Amino acid sequence: MKKIISIFFLLAFSLSAYASQESVAADNNAVADAKAPPAGENNTQPRVNPFVYDRTVQGEMMTVYQNIFTALENNGYFVIFEANIGKNLSHFAKRWGKDYNRNKLDSIRSMVFCNGWYANKMSNIDTSMLALCPLRLTLYSKGKETHILFVRPGKIAAQSKAHKVAKELEDDVIRTLEVAIANMK
User: Fold this and answer.
1) What is d(CA 129, CA 68) in angstroms, rounded to the nearest whole number?
2) What is the tens place of the pLDDT at every residue in 38-62?
3) Are 146 and 57 in contact (CB under 8 A)?
C-alpha cells in the first residue's frame, strides 16, 4: 500500500500546466550558471514545460542514476526513497494491453530526496511550501539516452514569501545535476 501511495504522489507532483514557447526560452537561461557540457556532448533538449527541468543525456539508466544519486548525497541531499516506477508499472502490462508503455521506455526510476536546512528555512517562511518536501526527480530511459526530470521549486513557489529560498534550492539541485552529468565523461 505504501508503494501505491508513493507512486501516486510521485505522479501527482509531475502534473503541471504547459506554457508558451516564449516562456520556455526565457526559463532556459536559468541554468546558464551551471557547468554545461560542450555542444554535442550530453546536450540539453528543449523543454516544453517551464515548471520542469528536463535534461537528456547520453548514457544508460544505471550509470546516470548512480552518478545523480552520488552527487545528491555528496551535496547535502539525502535520498530517502528510490522507486522503480517502470518495474511497478510492468505488473499492469497484461491488464492495460496495447496501452501499456506505448513510448517503449526501457526504464523509469525516481529518487525522493531532502535537504533538512532548506526544508526548515522554507517552513519558517511559508508552511504551505512544505508541499515541496521531500523533493523528487524522475529518470526515464530509451535506448542509450536517459532523461532527467525535476519539478522546479522556484516556479511552484512563485507567489510565496519563500520564493527566494525555493529558487535558491532549485538552482542548487540543478547545479548538482549538471555537475554530475559533466563528470560522467
Assistant:
1) 24
2) 434 444 455 578 999 999 999 999 9
3) yes
When pLDDT is averaged across residues 161-167 and rounded to a whole number, the result is 97
Which residue shows C-alpha cell 532548506?
Answer: 118
Q: Report the distance separating Cα 119 and Cα 21, nearest Å.
A: 32
Within 13 Å of residue 8, how many CA atoms lie on the same side as its CB? 5
What does the DSSP assignment read for 72-134? HHHTT-EEEEEE-HHHHHHTTHHHHGGGTTTT--SEEEEEEEE-HHHHHHHHHH-GGGGGG-S
Q: What is the pTM of this model?
A: 0.74
Length of the chain: 185
> Which of 148, 150, 77, 68 is closest to 108 using CA atoms?
148
- In this predicted structure, what is the pLDDT of residue 46? 52
- In sequence order, what are the residues at sequence separation of 6 or more whose Cβ sits closer than 8 angstroms to the Cβ of residue 30? 171, 174
Class of domain 2-182 as given by CATH: alpha beta
C-alpha cell at 110: 525516481
Average pLDDT over residues 111-119: 96
Instruction: Give the dihedral of Cα atoms 168, 14, 184, 106; nearest 10 deg.
Output: 180
Please determine, for residue 149, whether its predicted confidence score (pLDDT) is greater than 60: yes
